Amino acid sequence: MRVGTNKHVDPSKWPIASHVVDLETSIIREILKISSQPGVISFAGGLPAPEMFPLQDLARIACEVLEKYGAAAVQYSLSSGILPLRELIAKRANDHGIPTDVSNLLVTAGAQQAIELVARAFVEPGDYILTENPTYVGAMQAFNYYRARYATVEMDSDGIITDQVAKVLKKYPIKLIYTVSNFQNPTGITMSHARRTELVALAAEHGIPIVDDNPYGDIRFTGQPVPTLKAMGGDDVISLQTFSKVIAPGLRVGWMNGHKSIIAQFEKVKQCADLHTGTLVQYIVYEFVNQGLLEPHIEKIKADYRAKGELMLKTMEETFPSSITWTRPEGGLFLWVELPRGMSAKDLLPKAVEMKVAYVYGEPMFPNGGGENTLRLNFSNAGREDIVEGIKRLAKLFSEHA
After folding, report:
1. How many Å apart are CA 141 and CA 144, to the nearest integer?
2. CA-based nearest residue to 378, from 345, 327, 333, 336
3. What whole-number distance in Å separates Cα of residue 305 and Cα of residue 108?
4. pLDDT at 4 over 60
5. I need a labelling partner for 276 at 20 to 30 A (CA). Which of 42, 123, 155, 194 fits?
6. What is the pLDDT of residues 125-159, one digit of tens each?
7. In sequence order, what E strands does 307-358 have?
């Protein structure tokens, strides 16, 4: 029974903050709604391959965790993350040439929460963030919530063009540099060693932090490894990483690695958001890694994604019009396609869905506009037969409109 007056409440007229009302929904999430229709071959999401999830090991470990840790596994825990997991992450970082102890680490609900904590801690309305052009749309969502502005820098096959970075740093009061240095989302490009050296030097010269969003770094399946920005830049770099791409994204376990003073600030911000990342999933991830299962599992993932990526590239080479170009990633989940100028990937998407294939058009990934003729393809999620068939359908569509 309703208590109070007989007047009807209209929630649509409640005084929601203007910056929330103005916030756009994720274009990728909206396209996923379309591509989830029966029979649609989707290259749209950034989804790992579900058949690669270690379900049997996770089921076993979940039971073992509850037996081994009891109530502690489902109790409140430290905002910074359970100590065994942070110790394990620290050891793994040190093994990769990144001096780290537990005071440098904050466990987060995936790398996406880490980006949001960066935005919440750093960004005030009107602040400029330097990003690659294009950049990860999920990061833009987090920064847009706090009304950031963007100074964008173009990329080539070696990643962000650091000569342009130097000019932008002189022109704008940059608050932070946000980059996806390894197998970039959306382009799949990896920043070269020389560019990393130059970027770290420029950031240090201007006293600006680099936020290196690195969820794909472990998924290199070809080419020569390069040191991480964190290994090269030390305390000048805040590294964001996650187990989402190498175990399972639904666990929502990521982390931040930075100087202990800034990690202490992020911890305060996280306490406002969710107190701590789920205790149970932290213990599950800890046991999975501690039992020596992670590295062999990563090797399986790399083999699977290499085969799928090569198959997609081969099919594109055989079927796409010669006027279309694309990147050749050395790892990760994505490659980037440029259609001839004048073609709109956004306008072609409904036609693609009619042909039962979907992608993400690139325009929303350009912070200051542009990219109408670009699109992102994911090669990790679809099966091999669907990759071939889906690319052939896109080839037919693009040939008809080229």
Report:
1. 5
2. 333
3. 26
4. no
5. 123
6. 999 999 999 999 999 999 999 999 999 999 999 99
7. 325-326, 334-338, 357-358
The pLDDT, as a whole number, for residue 5 is 60
pLDDT in tens, 62-103: 999 999 999 999 999 999 999 999 999 999 999 999 999 999
Pairing between β-strand 128-133 and β-strand 149-156 as defined by DSSP bridges: parallel
The per-residue pLDDT for range 197-231, each reduced to its tens digit, is: 999 999 999 999 999 999 999 999 999 999 999 99
- Ranges of CATH 3.90.1150.10 domains, the chain: 12-53+296-401
Distances (CA, A) of 80 to 72, 159, 225, 334, 347: 16, 32, 30, 31, 45
Could you tell me which of 36, 79, 121 has the C-alpha nearest to residue 275?
A: 79
Q: For the chain, what is the mean pLDDT?
A: 95
Chain region(s) in the chain for CATH 3.40.640.10: 55-290
> Does residue 186 have a cis peptide bond before it, meaning omega lies within 30 degrees of 0?
yes
Comparing CA positions, the residue from 136, 134, 137, 34 lying closest to residue 349 is 34
Q: What does the alpha-carbon distance between residue 81 and residue 95 come to, in Å, rounded to a whole number? A: 20
**Tens digits of per-residue pLDDT, 19-57?**
888 877 766 667 667 767 789 999 998 899 999 999 999
* One CATH from 3.40.50.300, 3.40.640.10, 3.40.50.1100, 3.30.310.50 for 55-290: 3.40.640.10
Unique residue bearing structure tokens 């000048």 = 236
In this structure, whether the domain defined by 12-53+296-401 belongs to CATH 3.40.630.30 is answered with no
Mean pLDDT in residue range 374-386: 97
CA-CA-CA-CA dihedral for 69, 73, 74, 78, to nearest 10: 130
Nearest to 365 by CA among 135, 88, 160, 177: 135
Cα-Cα-Cα-Cα dihedral sign, residues 55, 58, 62, 68? positive
